[in-house]
Amino acid sequence: MAAAMGREREGIDLDDPWQAIEACYERGWTDGLPVVPPTEALVERMLASGPWDPDQVLLHEPARDRAVTAYKAAVNSVMAGCRPEYFPVVGAALTAIGDPAFELHGPATSTGGAALMVIVNGPVRRRLGIHGKANLFGPGFRANATIGRALRLVLLNCLECHPGVLDKSTQGWPGKYSLCFAEDEEGSPWEPLSVARGFRPEQSTVTVFAAESGHNVLAHGTRSPERLLTLFAETMAGLGSLSPGRSVIVFAPEHTEHLARERWSRARTQAWLYDRAWRSLADLKRAGKVEPAFLTNPRLLEWLYRDHPAGVPSPPPDPGAAERITAEDRTVRVHRGLGPDDILLCVGGGEAGGHSAFFPSWSRGRSVPFVTKEVPS
Amino acid sequence: MTRILDPTVRAGKVVGTAPLAPRPSRLAGATIGLLANGKSNGMLLLERIAEILGERHAIAEVVRVAKTNASVPVTEEEAEPLLRRCAVVVTAIGD
Predict the structure, then answer these.
(1) Do A66 and B11 touch (CB under 8 A)?
(2) Per-residue pLDDT tens digits for A258-283
C-alpha cells in the first residue's frame, strides 16, 4: 500500500480546506456540487475500509482503456462524501458497472443520458443506513447520496465523462448525480431481489442498471392486482420509452400489499406485466418509433415481429415500410423488452401513498443487462 | 498546508503506449479504410469523407467496416481487413 500511495501521490498543496474545494472546481473534478477535499489521511481511511489493494483494478473500461484502481476509487469516494465503511459498496458497484456485459462505454457516454442505478440488498443496508423507505430516491440520506455520487465522480474523473464532451447526454437527468437505494426487503412480499438473482439472504449485494428517468405510477383507487398492474403495464407501454430493453419497477409498499393479499408471486407479476406492456406495430409506426434502419437490423426486426405468428417477414420489409401502416400491423404486438425476465421488480418507499416507480432502460435498443455483485464484508 | 490527491486517471497500456503507425506522405493510390461506430450516421459521414479524399487525392480502394456494437471496442475480426488492406483508416462516430 505504501508503495502505491508513494507512486500515485500526485496532488496539490493548499493552505485551507475552502481553497481545496475551489481547487477541485478549477480542475473540473466535481459534479457541480462541492466535494470533500481528498486528503491523504481521508483516502487512506477509505482504502483501509475495503478489502482491496490500492493498485487493484476495480473497473477497466476497454473502449478507452481506462483502469480505475481501488486507490482512485477511494479518492473519488472521499470527494463524494462517503464514510469509509461505505467503500465496499462503492467498490462492488464499480465492479458491477465494469462487468464486460454492462458495456459501460454506452450508458456512460450516450445521448440517452443514463443514470447508474444501484439497488442494495442484504445486511449492509442496515449496517450503513442505506435507505429504502420514505423518499428513497430523494434527499436526506448520506449513504444513498454519496455512494451513487462516488460512481458518478469516478465516471467524471477517471473515465473523463465530462458533460457535452464524452458524456453526450442530450438532457441527462438528476439521477445522474446519484441513484442508490436499498430494497425494502422487510416490506416485500417476495424474496429479496438479491435472492431472486441467485445470492443468499445473508449476502449483501448491489444490482446495477442503466436507467432513464423514473415515471411515477400513481394508483390510490384500487385493491385489485389486475387493475393495479394495468396501470404499470400502460406506463411501461408508453411509446416515448418503448424499446426491446429492460425495466425496473420499484413497488411502493401500499401497492405490494394488494399483490400480497392475492398471493401474486414475483414471477406471475413479471409475466403478467410482460404480456400486457405492448403496443401494436401500427402504433409504433404512427409515432415514428420504427426507424428505417430498424428494418435492416436483425435484432430489432426480431423484437418487432417476435409475437407475429409468421415471425420476421422474409425478405425483410423495405425501408419505406417504416412509415407504411398495413392492416396486419394493427394486429402485431410489440412488447416492452423480450420477456418477463427483462422486468426487475423490487420494493421501496414510504408506508403511506400509492406511488410506485417505473424506470426504463437507457437506449432505444436492447441496452445493457442487470448486473448483481456481492458486497465484500 | 493540506495536500489533496489527484482523482483522475490516464489511458492505460493499450491506448497510452501503443506506437502510432507511420504517417504516409501521400494518399494517391492508397487503400483507405472507413471504420464507423455502427450508429445511424457514422458511415454516412465517412462516405462523404471518402468522396472528398477521392476527389482530392486519387485514392484507390475504400474498405468499409461498421462495428455491430457502438458500446464496445472494435473486435479483432472487424479490424482485420483494415489492418491487412489499408494504408490509412478514418474513423467516425455518428448518431
Answers:
(1) yes
(2) 999 999 999 999 999 999 999 999 99
Q: In whole angstroms, what is the distance from residue B82 CA to residue B87 CA?
A: 8
Counting DSSP H helices and E strands in chain B, the numbers are 3, 4
For the entire predicted model, the pTM comes to 0.93
Contacts of A40 in chain B (CB under 8 A): 3, 5
For the stretch B43-73, pLDDT in tens is 899 999 999 999 999 999 999 999 988 888 8
Below-50 pLDDT ranges, chain A = 1-6
Chain-chain contact of A63 with B8 (C-beta, under 8 angstroms): no
C-beta of residue A270 within 8 angstroms of C-beta of residue A338: no
Q: Is B71 in CB contact (< 8 Å) with chain A? A: yes
Beta strands in chain A (DSSP E): 11-14, 57-61, 66-69, 115-121, 180-182, 205-211, 215-218, 247-251, 278-280, 333-335, 343-347, 355-360, 371-374
Give CA–CA dist B2/A51, Å, rounded: 27
Q: Which amino acid is at A65?
A: D
Give this complex's ipTM.
Answer: 0.84
